[in-house]
Amino acid sequence: MKSYSNDSEIKASIKKNVKDHGCHISLIKSDGYNPSFGYTVGLTKQYNHPEIIVLGLDVESTHAILNSAFLDIKEGTKFITEIGYNGFLDGFEIQFVNVSGEYYSDYLGYAGWFNENSWNFKALQMVWPDKQSHFPWDSDFVEELKFRQPLLDRNLDFKFLELRSLSVFTTEDVLNGSTVTNVFHDEKGNWLFYSENGNDTNSTKIVRLEDLVKDDITLNHIYFLNYGESAFRKDKLSDWIIDSHPIRKVISDTLNNDNES
């Protein structure tokens, strides 16, 4: 699987793969916090089929699954939601859900670029079950796996990977109405939300993450902060500035019709 050193090299490869093979697969490694994922580029233009994204599996499995889906689409298959499909994971069905446009810029960047720098296309998320064949929307689904496979058709009001009930740190002045201007996600996974007044340890409070996001939906814009990263802004109308945010590297986009790369 080929690695790429810059954006122009990736874009050139996308064009070549779509022209030569009919599709491009973009694979992104986990950064240690955010899950790995992969998605197709070219299905919309070449086959009038929604692009497909898979989250939370290793990159080799993701590549194989997306390649298999592409070959089916090339033969005329049209995948739809609310039914199960076999043949992708040994012994398990998968299902598809529609990807909300709210998530396109988070996960489908090169698909947007290839589609005329527009989000005006459809996308499906291929959803895999746990070993007991429970899906993330089932009550018995393994809780830890939800972190690896966020569902991109829902939770538009809460994009964080953790549970809504997660306890996080903030300060009394934030609870009294001050805007959160500094956010830190420490190496242990703790989230800290402060105002411009900083961290006054004497006024530190523990609250539910969901409650902070309800009060300020713009906190969703920095849900992806990796362990040890921070973000800051001047006020609620300003963009977040990320400190030491690593670029999630595209490590493979090779797609051959013989399912080898």
From TrEMBL:
Alphabetized Pfam families for the sequence: DUF4262
InterPro entries, per database record: DUF4262
Domain of life: Bacteria
Protein name: DUF4262 domain-containing protein
Organism, scientific name: Flavivirga amylovorans
